[in-house]
Structures are given as structure tokens and as C-alpha cells.
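Review this today:
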Amino acid sequence: MFNFFKKDKSPIEEKPASLKERLVKSRQKLGSGLSTLLLGKKEINDDLLDELETLLITADIGINTTDKVLESVRKNASRKILKDSNNLYQFLKDELSKLLIEDNQLNTDIKETFVILVVGINGAGKTTTIGKLAKLFQNQGKSVMLAAGDTFRAAAVEQLKVWGERNEIPVVAQATGADAASVIYDAYESAKA
């Protein structure tokens, strides 16, 4: 009858974890998972590689990265470089480290219209980076155009126009609040012309 005096026992909603917390969780999951998987195993076989694949994917390593790592493991295991799971642990650490620092050059030597989309959080320096990249490409003799696609942030269009004026680079823009997709479309069509 007097249920309103009883304490509310409904679960409290948790805040979503921050990026840092999620990365720590992934690292811990991967580290403990590798230790558990490789501890005491002597032979590198298909079953071990299947379990390793599952572990890497569930630790948010990604399918493409997992495929690269497993391909390298298989190649080196077949060459007898990896003789047992103890060597495999260090090999995996080295392979994952290499992937993190792999140098992926941006090929801008193509003759077609080339688009670079820059995204990121507020205050990260996107507009400054865009201005510097535009100047770099201009100095390389490339034809450069900027598109003010951030139509919702106050002063974003004006900031990009300043960079364009400084470097004598055309800027395609519309009023603040305009449809961002139409700005990008107009810029692309203008660049192709």
C-alpha cells in the first residue's frame, strides 16, 4: 500500500566510457587474452591461429589488421622462425607495433580531381592544418581549392576564407547554417571545371 516509501531499485544508467577508458579496456583484454591463449602451448597450429584471430577481433583490433597480423604469423611460422608460442608472443607485439608506426604516404601525384576530407573534434586545429596543407600543395605546383563544409560552427567559414586569402587560394563557401553537402558538391564541381 505504501510502495512510494520503498527505495527505487531501478538500475542507474552508466555514462558511456571515454575513449581512454575503452582503449585501456582493449589493451587489458588483448594482453590478458594473449597470455591465457599462449601460456603453456608449444605448437603453433590452425586451432591456435583461429583462437588468436578471435581474440584480436574481439579486442577491437579490426578485421584488416587482424588479417595482416595472421598472414605474417603464418608466413613466419612456416619458415620455422616462430618455433613455439613463446616466440609468438614477442612476434605479435612487434607486428602490432609495426602496424601502429607504419608510414602510409598520401599519394597526391594523380591527375584527377583529388579530395581530402578533414574531420575532428572542435579545437583540434583542423582549419589551421587545412591552411598549411593547402599552402604545401600550392608550393608543389598543385591547383588547390578549399571548401568551407563546416557551416554550423560560428566563424568557421570566415576562418577558412582568411586562410584562402593569405595563400591566394579560392574558397567555396555559403552562409553559416547552409547545407554542408551542397557546399562540398559545389566545390567539387567547381574544381573539376
Notes: The chain has seven helices and two strands. The beta strands are 146-147, 171-172. The two ends are 77 Å apart (CA to CA).
